Amino acid sequence: MNKDLTVGKxxxxxxxxxxxxxxxxxxxxxxxxxxxxxxxxFIGEHALAAVGNSYEITxxxxxxxxxxxxxxxxxxxxxxxxxxxxxxxxxVTTACMFSAVLCGxxxxxxxxxxxxxxxxxxxxxxxxxxxxxYLDIYVWGLPFxxxxxxxxxxxxxxxxxxxxxxxxxxxxxxxxxxxxxFVKAFGMGVSGVAWATFLCQGVSxxxxxxxxxxxxxxxxxxxxxPLFDWAILKKILVVAIPSILQQSFISVGNIMIQxxxxxxxxxxxxxYSAAVKLNNLVITSFTTIGNGISNFSxxxxxxxxxxRIREAFYAGLKMVWCLCIPFCILYIFFGKYLLLLFMEQxxxxxxxxxxxxLWILSPFYFVVSAKLVADGILRGVSAMQKFMTxxxxxxxxxxxxxxxxxxxxxxxxxIWCAWPVGWTIAMGCSVVFYRREYRRLSAxx
Length: 445
Fold this sequence. Notes:
Blueprint: H1 10-43, H2 45-81, H3 85-120, H4 125-140, H5 142-157, H6 162-185, H7 190-217, H8 230-262, H9 266-302, H10 306-339, H11 348-361, H12 365-380, H13 384-409, H14 413-416, H15 418-442
Helix pairs in contact: 1-2, 1-6, 1-7, 1-9, 1-10, 2-3, 2-4, 2-5, 2-8, 2-9, 3-4, 3-5, 3-8, 4-7, 5-7, 6-7, 8-13, 9-10, 9-11, 9-12, 10-11, 10-12, 12-15, 13-15
């Protein structure tokens, strides 16, 4: 059901809109968590390390899909808020055509380049075959990843956060079952984990695209809209390219960090692989709420209701900080038991690595969540230069300091300490940029 986010009390509207998004990302993360859980429990520590090693590379592909999602979503939100329904439909078809071309290029790149990339990050020989196999299967499923992201972006732009939740709840639950079936019953190993994700993402993508198509047909327009528009593509790219660069450079940074981690051996790799999945569950939850704030801000920008954007910032802070409290408690006091979902009790070195990672990072969730709320507004009002500056500040600091701290201490713990420093400085940048952007908009009221 489409919803106008420009009316109603902002805090109430935002909570109702973002809570299903949060539920969706919980199920979205089940895809990745299920892969690592099944690999670690039913195959072994090396399989867990191989899937985790490959995961950092898959995030590069996801970065491009996410950028297309945000480019389409933000522009559709602005047009929907301005009641330009013809523009809404043209934006969707333009975004789909562009995404199809981009996806084809990435598939070709993945087929030819994943092997050399695995070598460049110093993947241990005993993990190389499984890592390569997982990536090869994943690349063939990229069309599902791209068009599912486009579909969920359109749902969010139209104010509907529930439909993506229903799709993800069903498909991710099925993914867990199929993972276990392929690995445990059929003995397919790491390939079973990859094929399970491929199949479940494919079904959810087809259902989501069909539902979006039906939803758009119900929106009345006075005349048939054009399928493609260069001016609209330019608007999409203004949001999409910085979003792609943000996510891809973060992924490249994570790959560089992964290369440092790989030098500490398979046990540290396995511990990091498990812990980073738990960490990504939290960060992605914050990012998803930030995306919801982007849609809210974009609709209200289109309707020229700027005061509601300021109220969204404070409502968003309350929302993410409410999430920080239980996650911090869980990870600090019960992290061991969560990590044991991915590995066996006798993986002592891996378990300690994961616990140290969570102990160091989780108190700073309050910091990074504030950054992501401010980023959501910056992206929603198309202030992409400021958005990129804050993002690269975080990324560069984390990568550089990971190398420095690990060399100084000689321990993997030094790598984990780079995260809080990058988050804190970048948060300051994002909040300052948001305040400047709001003052600029207020001057035009």
